[in-house]
Write a structure and sequence with these properties.
Layout lengths: L21 E5 L6 E5 H12 L6 H21 L12 E2 L10 H9 L4 H12 L4 E5 L2 E2 L4 E2 L27 H5 L4 E7 H8 L29 E6 L5 E6 L2 E4 H8 L6 E6 L2 E7 L7 E2 H9 L4 H8 L4 E4 H4 L3
Parallel strand pairs: 1-3, 6-13
Antiparallel strand pairs: 1-2, 4-5, 4-14, 7-12, 8-9, 9-10, 11-12
Helix pairs in contact: 1-2, 1-4, 2-4, 2-8, 2-9
């Protein structure tokens, strides 16, 4: 990425040995707050969020995304979602997953994964201080595990249309992601309960199913399904189930699916749903990033592909006192 592609200390970065901003992380298991320098925090996030055996350039892209996420919060003084005062962020996926210093020592350094940790720290060092910006502001650097071939426009998952979170092709996922397609099987009764539509389902005999408290055979319930529209990213946008319209995101969350890119079919009295990819689909696909890196793309190229029209800036210029 522009000021930081060389190894290990790119020009302009070695000189930038100003004190790093500190990050206060709420550790959800212990209830403690761990305060540490920004770059150490980024290493803990990359260790939690991306496999260390991914390509170095993919790890570097993840480091920049992780750094951008926290710098955006620090710059805005945003501590939303943190259960106690004094912390900037939690260690959970509601913000970014994070491996604490103690866990890195115990599970990585002493647990036989020191080479993986060294690789992660190299990725962080080689991108030191670099964050993504759009019109001078740190971006919402969202990322997810894998797509079914395309990422999502932000407004198809969240409400807001964000100019740098646009749907782009991500063909690499389909080539290298393990378990790209995952199948779930439900009885009709299970689906009706999970979707909360018991009062709207009519048995084939024509009498209203007033309650699922008494046994109702799946085959006696009519559950017509029609996909009404797809998103730009090829996921389910609107779907009608027994006459009730849901968004693909609602169905994903109510049924606990990996993705809102799914197909739906009946099979022997059951409903079989097959999902493609894993995650909300907005921003950078981690498996896609690894696929790009395997083909020779740099971290800068990966990030510019998944985040449309972004620039790169240094933390020191964004967090000036």
């Amino acid at each position: 990425m522009p000021p930081a592609t060389a190894s290990p200390a790119p020009p302009g970065v070695a000189a930038e040995e100003a004190p790093q901003p500190k990050v206060a992380v709420y550790l959800s298991r212990s209830g403690q707050i761990e305060t540490l320098p920004l770059e150490d925090y980024v290493s803990g996030v990359v260790a939690a969020e991306m496999p260390a055996d991914f390509e170095l350039e993919a790890l570097k892209a993840q480091a920049v995304a992780a750094r951008t996420f926290i710098v955006r919060r620090l710059r805005a003084g945003d501590s939303s979602g943190v259960p106690v005062p004094g912390a900037d962020v939690t260690d959970t996926v509601s913000h970014q997953a994070y491996v604490s210093r103690a866990a890195l020592e115990r599970e990585w350094t002493l647990g036989g994964k020191s080479a993986g940790l060294a690789k992660i720290r190299r990725a962080v060092l080689e991108t030191r201080g670099v964050v993504m910006t759009y019109q001078g502001q740190p971006i919402t650097a969202s990322f997810f595990a894998s797509s079914g071939g395309y990422t999502e426009n932000s407004e198809d998952y969240w409400k807001a249309a964000i100019p740098y979170l646009r749907s782009v092709a991500s063909p690499w996922d389909q080539e290298i992601t393990p378990n790209l397609a995952v199948t779930y099987t439900f009885t009709t009764s299970e689906l009706i309960q999970k979707l909360g539509i018991a009062d709207r389902v009519i048995p084939v005999s024509g009498h209203l199913a007033s309650s699922l408290a008494r046994p109702v055979s799946s085959s006696s319930l009519s559950l017509p399904v029609e996909v009404l529209s797809l998103t730009t990213g090829h996921r389910v946008k609107k779907i009608s189930i027994a006459g009730t319209v849901f968004t693909g995101r609602e169905v994903r969350e109510k049924l606990g699916l990996r993705s809102s890119q799914f197909t739906w079919k009946r099979q022997g009295g059951k409903v079989v749903i097959t999902t493609y990819g894993n995650g909300h689909g907005v921003g950078m696909s981690q498996w896609g990033a690894n696929g790009m890196a395997k083909e020779g793309s740099t971290a800068t190229q990966i990030l510019k592909h998944y985040y449309s029209g972004v620039s790169f800036n240094q933390v020191s210029t964004l967090l000036k006192k």
